[in-house]
Specification:
alpha+beta; Rossmann fold; 20% strand
């Protein structure tokens, strides 16, 4: 216990410790650091002439556990002479008699400080420096050793003196405190005084340990007998824990059973509204201009002569929402526990790239599955429609959506698809690909009931993995590695756009193709890919996915990163043998915005009113952005995308231009009037992010200037995680805006962003002293570029 207290306080503490018997065990040592040398430090600090002999006796016993640290009394002749002079002057001038008390160490320190200053001053004069320059004199006083009246005096490079200390201990025989050891600051050595030793309390020969054997509170020593209350407490705690765990599992079981019994998936046929006129307009609109055929089956079930026609999914209205209806060829459906569990698993699937299972109608003769409706049709429809132009970026997006959906599916309770093909990948109104026909194999028509001599039977096996084709009785749910093989066939369809299993000039029927795939050939029989026409990374990915050995195929979590790289690297994309080179930009700023509640406005407006709204809004926006060094990339529905820093690089100005433009657009939308709804205010949501990206013209027949890179994705995330009528700014953009010192930003805090984790973001509030539009000089080359129709 280290103290730095007055003598009276020390005496009280030690007497209290004596009452507790601390000195008897010797487990405690009291250290007192004296700021000033007291008269009784080297004699009997325990003695008080006003106390009784009994109390002084107790104090003497208590002081056995005290060690005192004080300034060392020098033993040099110079110090002895100095002390005599000080005592004489004090007695003659001030009438004070020191007696046995030593002269304060501070007096000698002051004397040696003057001596040190004199030495530094002399050196300054000898070297011809200015004695008024205190910095020079001070530097000469530091980091040096000189001979003082107390011996060698050392000043370190911080200007601090290395002080000497003495350790005082009480002799138990005489009761006097004596010096038993010294610490020398110059040499940094601790030396014991010959013939002296420390007398430890309690009769110990060595100092007590840092921590007592049983700890300071005795918890390290186990009791010989555990108290009954501890045993009872332990049993009760264990019982409560077991009860909580059991209750949790019972609750989960009852909740699951309640969900199974409630059958939230069950739909009555009367709740679904269908009509032939309605269905005529609710089908896929991806192949307008071709002959259409209304059918409830997939295109793969059609004869080869009917493939030129568009296939529609049967649709209807359920609770006011358009849904897809898949009839079940079942005369009777038995609702058993395995089916209930599978229906619950299907109902629990919630992902942006999985078609949402709404429910099922199991009342004969109207047995059907009801799912989310995707109006753009299947991926197979889109790929086989030559009128739809797909640039490379859009193809990568389709593949990325497929991989994301399958990665989620493989990580869910469903585990695998088993029937993945391009006709089971559908596209919604926002061109997001989603996977359908998942699970519920007990309700679907078994393949063994199909006619094995038909074209359709063999064609729908073109996506099936070879190891599954070789099985005598494969399970309908398939395998995860088999799904990866199916994805490879879909990827080849997306790349080549020549249907599944394109063989160049070789003409084989689906049955012949399946027979060759089943054979253990080297190399294995696979679709034809011209390596001179397509990106090498794409070719390698597809080949890994359809490897003969299932263990060599990557899983979908790995494919997510592979496909993400493909969508960023368009520089090597070859179209019909001609390279399309993309340019990389180190730093740009990207703006995304959309209108919150636009879907609701559109639902309550006529198509012409929606067109007028968007035309008025974008005309207003286009007139504003012309005053800034920015480039409008595209508009999709109510979404608006603008970039600065390309195609003409402008240093760090891009962030300032996008920020100014955002403030201008936000101010404009606050006063914007909707023709058919003048009392409503549009709520614009804006997101900004800065970073590197690649950009280039993609496609030949329908060229588009596209941006690629993670910066685009992050900017979109900033917009989607923003708030209406606010400008959401990323930390990277804020870092650049801070360089200009004219923008006011408010800290929003940490925001959880999909794929990014937690990011600290900001709100852009205003710009101070913003230059007027008339003072802004537009880049003529940029203006000319905007007028070029690419």
């Amino acid at each position: 216990i280290v103290m730095c207290a007055s003598p009276s306080s020390i005496r009280q503490i030690l007497l209290a410790a004596e009452e507790l018997g601390m000195q008897e065990t010797g487990e405690f040592v009291f250290f007192n650091v004296e700021l000033f040398t007291s008269k009784n430090s080297t004699q009997r600090p325990w003695y008080n002439e006003d106390d009784s002999p009994e109390i002084n006796g107790r104090a003497r016993r208590a002081y056995q556990s005290l060690l005192t640290v004080t300034d060392r009394v020098p033993d040099t002749p110079e110090y002895a002479e100095f002390s005599r002079e000080i005592k004489n002057i004090t007695r003659m001038k001030y009438g004070f008699n020191y007696g046995a008390e030593e002269v304060s160490a501070y007096a000698t320190a002051f004397h040696e400080a003057v001596l040190l200053y004199a030495l530094a001053l002399n050196e300054t004069l000898e070297e011809g420096d200015d004695i008024m320059n205190g910095r020079v004199i001070t530097q000469k006083m530091w980091n040096r050793t000189f001979e003082g009246i107390t011996g060698n005096v050392r000043i370190d490079d911080n200007g601090d003196r290395n002080v000497d200390f003495s350790l005082l201990d009480m002799d138990p025989d005489t009761g006097d405190f004596q010096v038993v050891a010294n610490y020398y600051g110059v040499t940094k050595q601790f030396e014991r005084v010959p013939g002296k030793k420390i007398h430890w309390a309690g009769g110990r020969e060595d100092p007590p340990p840092d921590i007592p054997p049983c700890g300071f509170d005795g918890t390290k020593c186990s009791n010989e007998k555990i108290p009954k209350y501890a045993i009872i407490s332990g049993l009760l705690s264990g019982f409560l824990i077991a009860l909580c765990i059991t209750s949790f599992f019972i609750y989960r079981r009852f909740k699951q059973e309640a969900e199974l019994v409630s059958m939230t998936w069950k739909i009555k046929w009367e709740e679904i509204t269908t009509s032939s006129s309605t269905n005529r307009y609710l089908g896929s609109r991806t192949s307008l201009g071709r002959n259409s055929l209304y059918s409830s089956c997939s295109e793969e079930t059609l004869a080869s002569g009917m493939k030129g026609k568009q296939v529609f999914t049967k649709t209807g209205y359920y609770k006011g929402v358009i849904v897809a209806i898949k009839p079940l060829v079942k005369t009777r459906i038995e609702i058993n526990r395995p089916l209930l569990l599978e229906l619950k698993r299907m109902k629990d699937l919630q992902n942006d790239h999985i078609v949402r299972f709404i429910g099922a109608c199991v009342d004969p003769p109207y047995c059907c599955l009801v799912t989310e409706y995707c109006p753009k049709g299947s991926l197979q429809d889109i790929l086989e429609n030559e009128e739809i132009k797909l640039d490379w970026m859009f193809r990568c997006s389709l593949l990325q959506d497929t991989v994301k959906g399958m990665a989620y599916l493989h990580n869910s309770d469903v585990r695998s698809h088993g029937n993945l093909k391009s006709s089971n990948c559908v596209v919604d109104s926002r061109f997001v690909l989603k996977i359908t026909d998942i699970g519920l194999h007990a309700l679907r028509t078994p393949e063994e009931n199909d006619n094995k001599e038909t074209y359709a039977y063999w064609r729908k096996k073109l996506w099936t993995a070879p190891e599954i084709l070789r099985m005598p009785d494969p399970t309908p749910e398939g395998t995860q590695k088999g799904d990866v093989y199916s994805f490879a066939i879909i990827a080849s369809e997306v790349v080549v756009r020549q249907g599944p299993f394109y063989l160049n000039e070789v003409d084989l029927s689906p049955k012949e193709i399946i027979e060759r795939v089943k054979e253990n050939r080297k190399p294995p029989f696979r679709p034809f890919l011209d390596e001179n026409l397509y990106d090498d990374e794409v070719i390698q990915m597809i080949k890994k996915c359809w490897a003969e050995d299932p263990m060599e195929r990557p899983d979908f979590h790995l494919l997510k990163s592979i496909v993400r790289r493909l969508s960023r690297s368009v520089a090597r994309q070859l179209i019909h043998g001609e390279a399309v080179t993309a340019e990389a930009y180190d730093s740009v700023s990207i703006y995304f915005s959309d209108i919150v509640g636009f879907t609701s406005i559109s639902a309550q407006s006529t198509p012409m009113e929606v067109i007028d709204l968007l035309n008025d809004l974008y005309t207003c926006f286009d007139s504003i952005i012309e005053n800034f060094d920015v480039y409008k990339v595209e508009t999709i529905g109510d979404a608006y995308m603008v970039v600065s820093g390309l195609p003409m690089k402008n240093g760090n100005i891009h962030a300032k231009e996008i920020a100014r433009m955002s403030l201008a657009l936000l101010n404009a939308v606050k006063t914007f009037k909707i023709r058919h709804r003048p009392d409503d205010q549009l709520k614009l949501r804006i997101g900004i992010h800065s970073g590197p990206c690649a950009a280039g013209v993609v496609g030949l027949k329908m060229p588009r200037y596209c941006l690629f890179g993670d910066t685009v994705n992050t900017a979109s995330r900033m917009e989607s995680n923003g708030q209406p009528l606010k400008i959401h700014v990323s930390p990277k953009t804020k870092e650049i805006l801070d360089l200009f010192g004219t923008f006011t930003l408010e800290l929003r805090g940490e925001v959880e962003m999909k794929g990014k984790g937690k990011i600290t973001t900001y709100w852009l509030v205003e710009e101070v002293s913003t230059p007027s539009v008339s003072n802004f000089t537009k880049d003529s080359s940029l203006t000319q570029l905007k007028e070029v129709n690419i």
